[in-house]
Amino acid sequence: MKIAHISDLHVQARRPVPFTRFLNKRMTGAVNLYTFRKDAHSGDILHALMNDIIHQDVHHTCITGDLSNLSLEQEFDASREEICRLGDGSRVSIVPGNHDIYTRGSQRAKRFESYFGDWLCPDLRALPYSKDLGQGVKVVGLCSAIPTLPFTSYGRVGKEQLEKLAALPSPGMTDFEIVLLHHNLHPRHSSLKDWSSGLKDREEFMGILGVRGTSMVLHGHTHVAHRVQLSGNNRPLHIFGCGSSTWTHEEHMARYAVYHIHNGKLAKIETRVFSPQLGEFQSVENELESDLDPGWLVEGTSTAA
Predict the structure, then answer these.
(1) Euclidean distance between CA atoms 136 and 261, whole angstroms
(2) Quick check: 181 and 217 in contact, CB under 8 A?
(3) CATH number, domain with residue 117
(4) Which residues contact 206 (CB under 8 A, 6 or more apart)?
């Protein structure tokens, strides 16, 4: 089975947005978007990304959040239009990122659910959702995105989702469980960055994964690709961040991953990176470059040996 993993698309609105929509946290976000991050995420690359995934004939595509920049309807419209090309909920699984639940107003309006509920579940309060893809492969989706104050982007899975995750039937010895959430599980490069943008209940979440025997966690949030393999409960636990799939950064150009799963094991990782010269994605074997030291995990709360 071939599983594609894309993330952090940050699709921009294709039509004007009234100024009054920026009279909240979006004000700082818009300043960042139209200055430091201007042209950082390309619509042309997004279109090429969808074309490439379709051409790869993957069985399922996992999208780990930040489909938008400021959780505006105009952004969700543009994002949904592209994602529809990949198929319905049997072919695509989505979880929201912090930019998709950017304000308390967008959370109250359930804006993300109204646009993407077909690919997750009708109500984020019903998370985690679980999908059986066949061949022993299952996908579990969680929401780690919450509205936060300006200049912060931390996340939290929350007690209710953690309890529901722990209560799900554990995967069998020949099953391959893939868990999706937006926020990364490793600490950021500074304690301040980790406090302002990390996953607040990381330790509790990792503890449950260790007991369950989860095979793989896919996340977004960090636009640079990351990977780590840990000793799990009778099986290894793979943690992957594929990086941003639309980023125009010269050193970390837009990319996505294709995971090949065979007989309940991860058999191969293929990274496909956008070539500005060719205008298309190209395969780079095992190019997820930022291997992490598993020593960052807290003893007794993870699957570390």
Answers:
(1) 10
(2) yes
(3) 3.60.21.10
(4) 185, 297, 298, 301, 302, 303
Query: Residue 269 corresponds to which amino acid?
Result: I
Domain that holds residue 65: 2-296
Low-confidence ranges of the chain (pLDDT < 50): 287-305
| Token reading at 49 | 């990304």
Check: CB of residue 242 under 8 Å from CB of residue 5: yes
Residues 176-230: tens digit of each pLDDT: 999 999 999 988 778 888 889 999 999 999 999 988 999 999 999 999 998 888 8
| Chain centroid to CA 247 | 14
CA quadruple 150, 155, 159, 161: dihedral sign: positive
Asked if the structure places residue 204 within a domain, the reply is yes
pTM: 0.89
CB neighbour class for 232 (10 Å; exposed up to 12, middle 13-18, buried from 19): buried
301 domain residue, yes or no = no
Cα torsion 186, 188, 194, 199: sign: negative
CA distance 28 to 183: 21
